[in-house]
Amino acid sequence: MSRFNYSHRLVSTFPFLAVAVFKVEGVTTDADVTSLVDGNLDVARAQLEAAGNESQLAPIRAWRAAYTATGTNPTKYRMAAESILRRLRTRGGFPMLHPLVTLCNSVSARFAIPVAALDLARISGDLSVGEAQGGEPYHGFDGVESAMPAGEVTFKDGAGVAHARKWSHKQSGRSAVSATTTRAMIVAEAVHEGAADDLSLLAARLREDLVAAWPGASVGHTLLTGEDLLSGVDMAAVASANGPAVNGDAGG
Predict the structure, then answer these.
(1) How far is the CA of 180 from the CAs of 30, 69, 165, 169, in angstroms?
(2) 104, 145, 181, 229: which has the fewest C-beta neighbours closer than 10 Å?
(3) How many CB atoms lie within 10 A of CB 240?
(4) CB within 8 A of 99, min separation 6: which ones?
(5) Best CA proximity match to 79, nearest among 93, 130, 70, 149
(6) pLDDT by residue (tens digit) across 125-180?
(7) Per-residue H/E/C for 123-161
(8) d(Cα 235, Cα 237) in Å, to the nearest integer?
């Protein structure tokens, strides 16, 4: 893929919208992320205990309001991080999947912010987050293809393929990270007041964890806010940890 950006309508409707975008090259399936995941989940459990319920956490309250504003029932279709925290609170379990997905899910739980990992090789051309025109193909994890309804927020690539349902509710099986993934894009999105500050903390934690899990990988990221969300970021320009910053790199 080349450029990643957001629609004018989303940027204008959600003034606190901030997005951390990572590019990771050199992903493997043999990384041991157990201790990193455990550390993130310890923080998540402590925050859940203090809040009493995931719905009381500020990022999730804001996402629920955003879902309502975009025509999605937030209790029927939960934002991904809320689903992870709800499962952690009610069942105590945490699924161990591909190590990159598992690590991203644990960071998502720690910050109550959705963190999605996508296989860059499975995305064609530019990727834009905005409302579906209607009819775009969406490939579920069960292999079934369905057509997107008009107006639903999704990630749509240059080939007109939808890579998400209900914005941050569910990813597509088409671009899901798998055993064959070597290059991945990670997107963390927040819409609450103070989102940019929280995403800077999330990005620093995630980059540290990624480098620890895949010391031989190239890991770069950028933070998008305001007008930068509209112009987007050229994924080829997302520098490695030792490279130059782009669009306000949030790392340190």
Answers:
(1) 12, 37, 23, 24
(2) 145
(3) 14
(4) 29, 30, 31, 32, 33, 213
(5) 70
(6) 999 999 999 999 999 999 899 999 999 999 999 999 999 999 999 999 999 999 99
(7) CCCCEEEEECCCCCEEECCCCCEEECCCCCEEEEECCCC
(8) 5
C-beta of residue 241 within 8 angstroms of C-beta of residue 208: no
Q: Exposed, middle or buried by CB within 10 Å (0-12, 13-18, 19+), for 76? A: exposed
pLDDT digits (tens, 9 = 90+) for 4-45: 999 999 999 999 999 999 999 999 999 999 999 999 999 999
Q: Position of tokens 């999730």?
A: 60
- The answer to whether 171 touches 11, Cβ cutoff 8 Å, is no
Angstrom distance (rounded) from CA 105 to CA 95: 9
Tokens of 184: 């991945």
Query: Residue 14: left if φ>0, alpha if ψ -120 to 50, beta else—which one?
Result: beta
What is the torsion angle, in degrees rounded to the nearest 10, for the CA atoms of residue 37, residue 39, residue 45 and residue 48? -90
C-alpha to C-alpha distance for 180 and 117, rounded to whole angstroms? 14
Exposed (0-12), middle (13-18) or buried (19+): which is 89, by Cβ within 10 Å?
middle
